[in-house]
Backbone:
């Protein structure tokens, strides 16, 4: 982000590119700069789009579905997917009808029933490397656990999680820099989902999320195969990227701030509050886009139907007008009204599940790898526009014993 000027209509023009390496390395500084100029700016990159960077503006826009549409795409540039990724790329009242199909499977009660499975996975995965005294914690724990749990919920083969992770990561992180690669990954993912759908139809449905989608109806009409596929894609994206990103980001902060780590080691009851603070401080989903649905004024600016806007959740969560000392991690912070999961009709359905997986992984790490430290430089995905996440993080720690079923 290099230049700023006032356009003829009074809007503040900036060169802001959330897909750039500069953003990946300096996202929080750029958020501060955007807010200092104006909470509503306009960037010329990617065909032009509005940028909302303070809490009040992001909150208001996210709740105004008439002015700010989620269909056809929540990305800037727009997604290369051939069909909308539902329900995130839909608008009310369809949004609520789509969400109601699976909402009960992501409730706090349903999440509680999945925690033993998450614990089992954490034990198995940590057993796989704890005797070595080193690992890539992202590749060996924080990515496979959410991925395998997501596949478990969908009734799919957990052992093939690496294929799904590759497709999801390419679809999310390569789409702006290498749309052809992202497109190929998307088509391969579609093909695999189609095979699972055919299997359900030939062998019968089970008590899993994919079967529920295939049997669901909206206003008496079953979802078609495209809708089922795109809904499944969203579940896979949500389960295989953001929770790992949150956990990796938090681990880096605990290495930087050993006193925070020690507090959690000594008082595990702090984990729920720490979870909310890490969600606020290092929000994995940096922002999502909307399409202006009608001509109108917003925050004093004239906006035209068809223009795009990016709602920066992560910038809103560092807004000093709402959060005292926003650049400080404070487990005792009373204000927990962060926007890490969005707000309004599109608030993340999987928020309870994400919190549970994060707490399980952090609890197991603090119990079994309490002295973890970096054994190399963490690497982030090249494109952090939508998801700010670590892709690789080598650590070392005091070796320990295996404790799972395979322990000797």
Residues:
């Amino acid at each position: 982000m290099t230049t700023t000027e006032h356009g003829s209509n009074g809007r503040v023009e900036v060169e802001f590119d959330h897909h750039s390496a500069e953003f990946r390395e300096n996202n929080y500084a750029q958020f501060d700069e955007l807010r200092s100029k104006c909470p509503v700016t306009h960037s010329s990159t990617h065909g032009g789009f509005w940028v909302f960077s303070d809490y009040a503006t992001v909150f208001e826009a996210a709740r105004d579905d008439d002015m700010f549409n989620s269909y056809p795409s929540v990305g800037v540039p727009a997604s290369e997917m051939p069909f909308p990724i539902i329900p995130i790329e839909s608008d009310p009242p369809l949004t609520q009808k789509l969400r109601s199909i699976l909402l009960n499977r992501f409730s706090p009660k349903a999440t509680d029933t999945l925690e033993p499975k998450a614990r089992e996975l954490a034990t198995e995965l940590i057993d796989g490397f704890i005797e070595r005294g080193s690992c890539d914690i992202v590749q060996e724990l924080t990515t496979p656990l959410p991925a395998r749990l997501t596949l478990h919920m969908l009734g799919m083969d957990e052992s093939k999680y690496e294929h799904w992770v590759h497709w999801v990561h390419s679809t999310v992180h390569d789409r702006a820099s290498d749309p052809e690669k992202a497109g190929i990954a998307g088509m391969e993912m579609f093909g695999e989902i189609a095979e699972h759908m055919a299997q359900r139809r030939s062998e019968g449905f089970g008590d899993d999320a994919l079967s529920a989608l295939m049997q669901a109806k909206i206003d008496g009409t079953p979802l078609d195969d495209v809708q089922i596929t795109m809904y499944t894609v969203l579940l896979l994206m949500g389960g295989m990227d953001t929770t790992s990103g949150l956990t990796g980001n938090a681990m880096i902060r605990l290495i930087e701030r050993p006193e925070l780590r020690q507090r959690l080691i000594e008082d595990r009851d702090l984990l729920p509050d720490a979870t909310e603070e890490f969600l606020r401080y290092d929000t994995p989903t940096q922002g999502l886009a909307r399409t202006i649905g009608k001509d109108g004024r917003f925050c004093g600016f004239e906006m035209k139907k068809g223009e795009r806007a990016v709602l920066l959740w992560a910038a809103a969560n560092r807004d000093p007008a709402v959060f005292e000392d926003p650049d400080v991690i404070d487990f005792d912070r009373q204000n927990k009204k962060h926007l890490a999961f969005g707000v309004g009709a599109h608030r993340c359905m999987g928020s309870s599940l994400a919190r549970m997986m994060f707490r399980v992984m952090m609890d197991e790490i603090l119990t079994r790898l309490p002295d973890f430290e970096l054994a190399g430089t963490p690497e982030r995905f090249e494109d952090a526009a939508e998801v700010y996440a670590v892709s690789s993080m080598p650590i070392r720690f005091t070796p320990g014993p295996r404790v799972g079923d395979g322990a000797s």
User: Anything to note?
Assistant: The longest strand covers residues 288-292. The chain has a mean pLDDT of 95.
